[in-house]
Amino acid sequence: MTSTWISRMIIFITLTFLIGPFFIIVAAGLSAGDFLAFPPKGLSLKWYIKVFEVESFRESFALSMFLAVFGTITALVLGVPAAYALSRYNIPYGETIKTVVAAPIIVPGIIVGLALLRYLVVPLNLTITLALFLAHTALVLPYAVRVVSSSLNNLRSDMEEAAVLLGCSRIGAFIRVVLPNIQSGVLAAFILGFVTSFNQVPVSLFLSGPGVRTLPIDMLSYMEITYDPSVAALSALLALMSVIIIFVAEKFLGFSRYV
Amino acid sequence: MSNSFVSLQNVSLAYGKTVAVSNLDLNVRKGELIALLGPSGCGKTTTMRAIAGLMSLHNGSISIDGVDMSRTPANKRGIGLVFQSYALFPHLNAFENVAFGLRIKKFSRSEITTRVGKGLTMVGLSHLAERKPQEMSGGQQQRLSLARSLVMEPKVLLLDEPLSNLDARLRLEMRTELQRVQRDTGITMIFVTHDQSEALALADRIVLMKNGAIEQLGTPDDLYNRPATAFAADFFGFENIFKVSHSKIIGPNGDIPTGFAADEGHLAWRPGAISIGNGPHKGIVRGVAFAGEKREYVIDSMLGQIKAFVPADQTAYAIGASISFDLPKAGALSIPETQ
Q: pLDDT tens across B29-66, in order?
């Protein structure tokens, strides 16, 4: 009896810490008061509506979306062929390449951000948007390579040889046989990359500049000046967006197989 | 040479620095069914992949129907290959799997429908055209893979271990099927196998390979009854092989007279050719297995270990029994020393 009680307690506490903040944020955003507080003072949807009226939120949301979509697509354009080459050919230093490609996952974002700023953006005088785009692409690339690699490894290479013997070129075999069979892996990589890029803070923090900020950075700076519940409302909306994406991905792709 | 359709001349193949096949010459006639037979690592699959163009030649040349194909890429050779794993496309149904090559070759829609229909009918799968390969049984997948290659009307059809993934009953069925298809289409077929009974049953000629070279080439009758080397003899069931010099068997514990005049080289007996109960040789039964119409004995003797199959209606001996046995001249295969 006691052990059941204890384990239930542990589960309850874990869930409270994992999901609790989400409910607090949702509730704080529903406040009718003017300051971010929990429990909320009265109930109103006004902060959820205000989110859409703040211009900087709209701009930074657009930038974050742009980075998440095009950064991830670029990462896939680079990552799918890389994953293919790594899984099919005996490439010299293949293992080293894999490690280097995975490095952005392992190295703390704050270091990546500082390094990119100091040794890439400043010396080359890159625009902020371009710097952010390159950084997000690089950050998403490891996920693209890894997720696509795992679905390529499940695909027998003799299928491509069969396609070649039926008249395909090597590239034709890739397009007609490999791609259709790894498309759910590619989609999974896209979703994972999208979410990673969209929620990215430390690297973006270093690279954002005046007037050009990703949404999470914009929220941080908004809070430094204005301590109203709109940030909570926005956070809740973003969390909801991630949840919906992952839920749909899990339902249609069995997303958890790839991550 | 003039009637050779697939011709390999002085072909050498290597994986990096590891030589897999060296200086291989092989001529296959049009419409012939050839088996590349041998244990794993003998180079048979490598040779097949080289004919298909999936492996580049280290040396030598391959020609098909008089045209040098040595530098022709695999997708331009007009060769079909049925993979051991079938290598069907899981994202396409049976119809589309068979249509795949025809679409690449840009056949008209009606031509594709006709050819795929014919192909599926030929292998008895026309009722499963909508099925995905993974929803089919192993035998059906095998036949689908065969149909996919056949509709391309390849000059040569290569088959990699075509029966090894099937259970015993399906194997017999598929064997008959392959022979029928070969008869109906007259297509030249080369198949790879490690199973001598498969090669004997199917092939017009057998190419026995060992260590990247041809050990013996001949009809099933040649290889079964007249194996030319100790290796070939062992592969075709002459399990008792002895080195012979001056009509004496070189045993592990001294030489033993054969009792008849024998050439220098080897003498070999099938287990069924050895008789037990009477004879000049002595041994002790180490193992006995009842196999229906016969008993299979393993005997320790002065000659080393002997395998003997004896009709089950003869006297049975238990493990540990001392027995006499005979290596009769009548059942002996003589393999003379090759210079």
A: 999 999 999 999 899 999 999 999 999 999 999 999 99
Residue A259 pLDDT more than 60? Answer: no
**Interface contact flag, B91 A169, Cβ < 8 Å:** no
Whether B206 and B315 map to the same domain: the answer is no
User: Are B97 and B221 in a shared domain?
Assistant: yes
- Determine the Cα–Cα distance for residues B229 and B213; give it in Å rounded to an integer: 13
Same domain for B242 and B222?
no
Mutate to test the interface with A, among B54, B77, B91 (most CBs of A within 10 A): B91
Q: Tell me, yes or no, if the pTM score tops 0.90.
A: no
pLDDT higher than threshold 50 for residue B1: no
**Residue B309 sits in which domain range?**
238-336
Chain B residues with CB-CB distance to A169 below 8 A: 75
CATH no. for A2-257: 1.10.3720.10
Long-range contacts of A222-228 (CB under 8 A, 24+ apart): A222/A54, A222/A56, A222/A57, A227/A35, A227/A36, A228/A34, A228/A35, A228/A36, A228/A47, A228/A50
Rounded to whole angstroms, the Cα distance separating A135 from A26 reads 31
Does residue A156 belong to the interface with chain B, where contact is any CB pair within 8 Å? yes
ipTM: 0.84
Residue B156, pLDDT score:
95
pLDDT digits (tens, 9 = 90+) for B103-128: 999 999 999 999 999 999 988 899 99
B168 and B282 housed in the same domain: no
Closest to A45 measured CA to CA, from A202, A230, A207, A208: A230
Q: Are residues B151 and B269 in the same domain?
A: no
Who's near A211: CB < 8 A, 6+ residues apart?
none
As beta bridge partners, residue B11 has B24
Give the pairing type, strands B265-269 and B333-336.
antiparallel
Cβ contact (<8 Å) for B91 and A163?
Answer: no
Residue in B closest to A168 by C-alpha: B75
8 Å CB contact of B87 and A167: no
Return d(Cα A198, Cα A195) in angstroms, integer: 5
Our measurement of the distance from residue B241's CA atom to the centroid of its chain's CA atoms, rounded to an integer in Å, reads: 21
Among chain B residues, the shortest Cα distance to A184 is held by: B91
**Burial classification of residue B272, based on how many CB atoms lie within 10 Å of its CB (0-12 exposed, 13-18 middle, 19 or more buried):** middle
C-alpha to C-alpha distance for B47 and B38, rounded to whole angstroms: 12
- Please indicate, yes or no, whether residues B128 and B259 belong to a single structural domain of this protein: no
| Domain count of the fold of chain B | 2
Confidence band of B2 (pLDDT split at 50, 70, 90): low
Nearest alpha carbon to residue A35 among A233, A227, A225: A227
What span, in angstroms and rounded, lies between the C-alpha atoms of A119 and A48?
40
Query: How many other C-beta atoms lie within 10 A of the C-beta of residue B287?
Result: 12
